[in-house]
Amino acid sequence: MCIILIMLIILAQIVGRYFGFIVPSAEDFSGYALAAATFFGLAYTFREGGHIRVILVIQRWPLRLRYYQELTVLCLALGLVSFMTFYCGHMVWESYIFEEVSYGYVPVPLWIPQVPVALGMLALNLAVLDDLISMLRGHAPSYRAHEDELNLEEV
């Protein structure tokens, strides 16, 4: 939806230039939609194994060593993502409390475009926590199945 919104805004700008009118704050709204699309996609990309990982070395390790390595990385990732989630939420709250607005033609309260960023981080936080719990229960994390599929296709 966000990518379609970006396309519609850019299309409106093109048509507007042809007919001699401008779309106010089009760049701002496109940027907000891009940020929303990016952050909403983080959790899905993590679950699908799309985030960059160095599996060239990891895949050759013994299973026990790989388990501890992935467990350590998931714990660190959970800490980092939790930190980022908290401060994204805090940023939204401060923007709301201090009534911050954008500087474009159309003054938009900044908490509105910041909410998708915080929700996207929350979704990523839950995805990392889910994979950590899954590993502690003895199951493979969700991203490993997709990495193994990629490895089989390359061979």
TrEMBL record:
<feature type="transmembrane region" description="Helical">
    <location>
        <begin position="108"/>
        <end position="129"/>
    </location>
</feature>
<comment type="function">
    <text>Part of the tripartite ATP-independent periplasmic (TRAP) transport system.</text>
</comment>
<dbReference type="InterPro" id="IPR007387">
    <property type="entry name" value="TRAP_DctQ"/>
</dbReference>
<comment type="subunit">
    <text>The complex comprises the extracytoplasmic solute receptor protein and the two transmembrane proteins.</text>
</comment>
<keyword id="KW-0472">Membrane</keyword>
<dbReference type="InterPro" id="IPR055348">
    <property type="entry name" value="DctQ"/>
</dbReference>
<feature type="transmembrane region" description="Helical">
    <location>
        <begin position="67"/>
        <end position="88"/>
    </location>
</feature>
<keyword id="KW-0997">Cell inner membrane</keyword>
<keyword id="KW-0812">Transmembrane</keyword>
<keyword id="KW-0813">Transport</keyword>
<keyword id="KW-1133">Transmembrane helix</keyword>
<feature type="transmembrane region" description="Helical">
    <location>
        <begin position="5"/>
        <end position="23"/>
    </location>
</feature>
<comment type="similarity">
    <text>Belongs to the TRAP transporter small permease family.</text>
</comment>
<feature type="domain" description="Tripartite ATP-independent periplasmic transporters DctQ component">
    <location>
        <begin position="6"/>
        <end position="137"/>
    </location>
</feature>
<feature type="transmembrane region" description="Helical">
    <location>
        <begin position="29"/>
        <end position="46"/>
    </location>
</feature>
<protein>
    <recommendedName>
        <fullName>TRAP transporter small permease protein</fullName>
    </recommendedName>
</protein>
<keyword id="KW-1003">Cell membrane</keyword>
<dbReference type="Pfam" id="PF04290">
    <property type="entry name" value="DctQ"/>
</dbReference>
